[in-house]
Amino acid sequence: EHWTMTKTYRLNPPLSRFCLIACLATALAASACGKTPADPGGEGAGGEAQPVAAEAEPAGPAVAAAPAEAAKPATPVEPVEIVLWHAYRDAERTAIDQLIDAWNEKNPAIQVKALGIPFDALVDKAQVAMPHGNGPDLLIFAHDKVGTWARDGLIQPLGKFASKERLDRFLPQTVKPLVFERAIYGLPLAFKSLVLFYNTALVERAPATLDELVTAGKAFMAKANSGDEEGAFGLAYDAADLYYHAAFLHGFGGLVWDEEAKALAIDSPAAIVAATTVRGLHKEHGIVPKGLSGFVVTAMFNDAKVPFVFNGPWFIAEIDKAVKWAVAPMPTLANGKPMKPFLGSEAILLSAFTKKNAQALEFVDYLTSDEAALTRFKVGRQMVANKKVYENSRLASDPVVKVFRAQADNAVPMSNAVEAGVAWQPYSNALRKTVFGDSEPAAAMHEAAAQARDALAKLRK
Known about the structure:
By secondary structure, this protein is an alpha/beta fold. The protein contains 17 helices and 12 strands. Helix 2 runs antiparallel to helix 12 and helix 9 (269-283) crosses helix 16 (424-436).
């Protein structure tokens, strides 16, 4: 340091020497702390710390160094907690728990806490809790809620995080459904669609057409319901639910919405043909029972009461280990076209209310990586969205994987539009009336279309 005297003071010699020593001591103390007396904050102009020149040690006798002060233990940094909600169970839950445990072990600064919530309750719970700050940072759900949740401000777009490099990991048909109003609101984890499950102990092979399925189903019923045995059917699925019925609708060339997803097409000629066909499976051929829920379908298949089931990949975990089964693509309809089920893209979504965007997205990147996808594929038996998994010939040659992967190329992504929800209840009511009731298909579909259009008009006001 350079000190300049601007004034000269006349002092007695002993006092002068004392003052000089005091000044030098003050200067040395300030230099040792990296501060000048005029800079108590240790910062110079512009807020940057200014370097202090080192001073030479004065010559003198060696002096033993003072004992160093014991180092104080560093204050532990509280980890950032990321809360994730999902509806996984069985093998899928085991897989994601394994991945979260592995993440938490390697990333002490970002700890992920998962909460499993029943599927039917997850939507309502999220919509109530998230705006009040009691919801998750991340949420795993099907893409069909993206439009509604984006409009309601519950989830946020991923912006630059959804880079081309990241999106190239996935099958294109699993990414497109996550786009709403030109923004991407999630990264895909898995895709889900219906296929044909069949009991290989009850039927020799999978039917290629719906007519073959009807014939095989009726033959099984004739044998299984003989004597005192009853309650066997040829085909089990919820025929009054639009999600399951859509495979018939799309196969006959129909849609719930028109091509631009701007107008409902519930009562189109193709929709009426599809409803009539399903009505025949119950009323004419008698192979489809009335009022089936998911648990009833599982019980019938496990108890060898039905040889054929339309179901998705979640059904695999529900099949009893003693049952011999296989899967096949959905059969071809009378028009020569294959049935085309809905495709659902299951994605991880970012809450609009989280204050931990950066840390949450780090975990998103990990969970959607090719390595994590392989764990979800092997342990959780998920049909993952990552292309690289299917580039492995050994994995892709698995008969079950092969069928689901092929079906994904012959499926129709569900709409994620806000308005899409208005069709579900009227459509399902119409199916219930025409398939299991006495309403004619055309009349029931026209009534459903009118109800849905009224609901759509109110929604758009």
